[in-house]
């Protein structure tokens, strides 16, 4: 099931990533933000403020530039509205180059909350880091 307002949020999220606009991306989150990534070990972190989150976004966008990411395509969105102001949404993403070819895919589970009338990300659990690391290793070996 995809809730239309949640779908609209992820359209904005995807378009903002494609513009490589870290400041606008940071505005799509609320703080403190909980991020849990699966890599060598599961590592939960709490981001206290927008100022703390911006360098993380800048690093991610830098990695995406290195890989030639033109955008992310949601292959599947499964939104579960818990209340009209709270949703748990699983998104299966595929990162693509300008020519449309796939770089890698990953899944993120987003806790979305309504803040000041707008959906914002309050938490993310994802499996992207090992895939990002592998793609960057592959990109480094070809240069």
Q: What does this entry show, briefly?
A:
With 143 residues, the protein is of the alpha+beta class. It is built from four helices and six strands.
Written description of the protein model:
- The protein has 143 residues and is α+β, with helices and mostly antiparallel strands.
- The chain has a single domain (4-137), classed as Nuclear Transport Factor 2, Chain: A (Roll), CATH 3.10.450.
- Helices cover 36% and strands 44% of the residues.
- Strands 2-1-6-5-4-3 form a 6-stranded mixed beta sheet.
- The longest helix is centred in the middle third of the chain and has 18 residues, at 50-67.
- The protein is globular.
Q: What is the CATH class designation?
A: Alpha Beta
Report the total helices: 4
Radius of gyration: 15 Å
Specify the biggest β-sheet: 6 strands, mixed
CATH architecture label name: Roll
| Strand order within the widest beta sheet | 2-1-6-5-4-3
How are helices and strands ordered from N to C?
Answer: HHEEHEEEEH
Estimated share of beta-strand residues? 35-45%
Low-confidence runs: none
Number of domains: 1
Distance between the termini: 43 Å
Task: Report the average pLDDT across residues.
Answer: 94
The assigned structural class equals alpha+beta
Return the CATH topology: Nuclear Transport Factor 2, Chain: A
